[in-house]
Amino acid sequence: MNGALSHEPWEELAVGYALAALEPEDEQRFLAHLPNCPTCRQTVAQADGVLAQLAYAAEPANPPHQLLERLRATVGQSGTAGGDREPHSAAGRVLHRRRSHRVGRRPGEGGLASRLRTRGAALAFAALVTIGGLAGWNVALHNDVASQDTRASRVDDLLRSMAKPGAAKVALDEPQTGATKGFAVLDGQHVWLVLDGLAANNPAASTYVLWQKNAAGNAAALGSFDAAGGTQVVDIGTMHPQPGGVAALAITKEHGRAIPAQPGTPVAAGPVSQ
Amino acid sequence: MTTVRGTTDAYAALEDGALVGLVGEREGLALEALYGRYGRVCYGLARRVLGDETLAQDVVQEVFLAVWRDAGRYDAGRGALSTWLLSMTHHKAVDSVRREENLRRRRNAALSDVFETGADDVDDEVWSLLRRERVRSALATLPVAQREALTLAYFGGYTQREIAGLTTTPLGTVKTRMLAGMRKLRDVLDGVADEGASR
Predict the structure, then answer these.
(1) Chain A hits for B91, Cβ within 8 Å
(2) ipTM score of the complex?
(3) B159/A95 touch (CB, cutoff 8 Å), yes or no
């Protein structure tokens, strides 16, 4: 269609704009066009969303602590447990009163395989490295020995699941924004969740539920869990596939502690690739 | 190295939008919580583009100060908070790298694979692995020329004209490849296209 073809050059500029790859004169021309073009605004927004995912290919890394101190100093917060003002929110006031410093953590030395406690875990990791081509990790574990053992053991099992032939890794994205809130790992027998940024729930009042849906759209619960906020690995348990296979997964947040017969509105969902 | 997640516990129940709202009300601890959630990925991206840790720190500070100064600029209707932060990070990193004008470093940054993590939490490591796998699998579905155009722009900070020069390709072809590559990536990451296919 002539209209679509004539607009293509603008969409090329839209992608270039999102990539910050335009020459100054092209950027000027595009910025004059953008306010009057909803198509291009949508193209830029979609490209921004794609590029935000591309950012994760760059490998997140902890900035030095002094960066946080610089930020605090600039926004007027002191670097100690006592601040200058009581925050407005309840969350802030709680943190303000019992703020603690988790200082002194140091990155570990050596690769992940040398830090995990079990030989089986090291073999699982080696298999994962071979399959994924990811050599040379350098990962440190928490200094808390007791939780370190528990978490390392849990991650051992997850890594084994991920390394199994045919294991599916399903991205679970927030419907409204497209933000990835987690991944489900299905190895045919077991289900894991790796979450990041799913808001913590109040265990006394609500529960999260992971659902499977078949091609016909019929839903069945795989299990429930509580989110702690931040990054966490959750062992959902044994998988019981429903008739028709698994076409998609979804996470809902349900009132109370019981799993309902049907899912509520998904907070994150994704298709299962074949 | 101190984890950036140490201050976020009390804000764990808050959605990104609520957190940004508190930043808009001048709650510094809410800004710290946002930094705890997204500081790592922003720093990793800036470091990859710039190839310089000091410059990367400057970029990340600029990003979070921009949020502090004008949290109201974030519009949840236009996309995720992470998208907004990472877009700002990328643009500021590219501005910085162009000021530095070190072409060789930019090319190395664009094409290199960085595996060092620097994280001190296994859950974070697994999360990073899954995210990295997902995007790399998606990139692998692109024809080489499209992938090259996108990665030279995104990680190398090159303009379309510079990429045309580097790859000895007409400028119009570079623009077409970027648009086609972006559309393909969008479809793959949305689960619309078969991630195993490549042309």
Answers:
(1) 20
(2) 0.86
(3) no
